[in-house]
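FW: tagging you since you asked about this chain on Friday. Here's the raw sequence from the shared folder, copied in full. Didn't touch anything.
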Amino acid sequence: MIQDIFPYKLNNQFVQNVVPSENDKVMIFDSGKVIAHLEAESVTFPAVKNASDSGISPDSLVFLFSINNVEGEKESYFLYQKTDVQIPGFEFTDLRQIRDTEMDFMYKVMAMMTAKHLSDWYRDTKFCGRCGCKTVHSKTERAMVCSDENCDYTMYPRIMPAVIVGVINGDKLLLTKYRKGYTNNALIAGFTEIGETLEETVAREVMEEAGLKVKNIRYYKSQPWGLANDILTGFYCDVDGDTTIRMDENELKEAAFVKREDIILQPTKVSLTNEMMMRFKNGEEC
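HL: got it, structure written out here
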């Protein structure tokens, strides 16, 4: 999955007054795209030197995080928040195109998706949600603070919890296909609502999308998914009683129980969904 980047290591803690070096990376996003150079099995993001040569001042860059490589050397990533820029050798490339490219260096995809999550948050917190005044960067933590001292409201990065559900019926797994967007096999999924536990989200989403009751809900694994600002939580469960699927046709175009040997996996290995399908297909404990 995207977070499985060992021996690379993501360092996402707040660090104050980081000065960019010429080889650190600059992330620039615009409407689901990022400035990059994409090849068959690799992606390159512009370095600070590339950005500086194109008129971007290092002082305008916002520190995001760093990644340690195999030798333990640290490479920092910075955000440039304007989009009216051109960097020779790089162009705005669809995020999903990069995500779905089979690469030797998965840490770059993880870096891109994490940077996108933070980029969205910085974009959406330029003004205080309580009083409407402009915000400023906190000097002590990763937060945006209202500039009005009488308000002093503090905003932290927003992370939205969601569930991925593998519904098991004997030697079969419930596979779905969305009505719009992603076209490959998927599992039941949905966001957790206010006042709801993750387990309650599992039961509700399965009932809403497939009309099934479930039991034996059990946690498997989680995954950050920066493209949608999510933290995905994977669960397996068993059908409880009637196995007749009553599909929500507004959300899905297909929903069926599929034998493990007939399961067609997603084309890439970046997602928690694909790992959960693969685990069941291979007869592993679920």
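FW: The mean pLDDT is 93.
HL: agreed, and The CA atoms of residues 109 and 253 lie 29 Å apart.
FW: great, closing this out.
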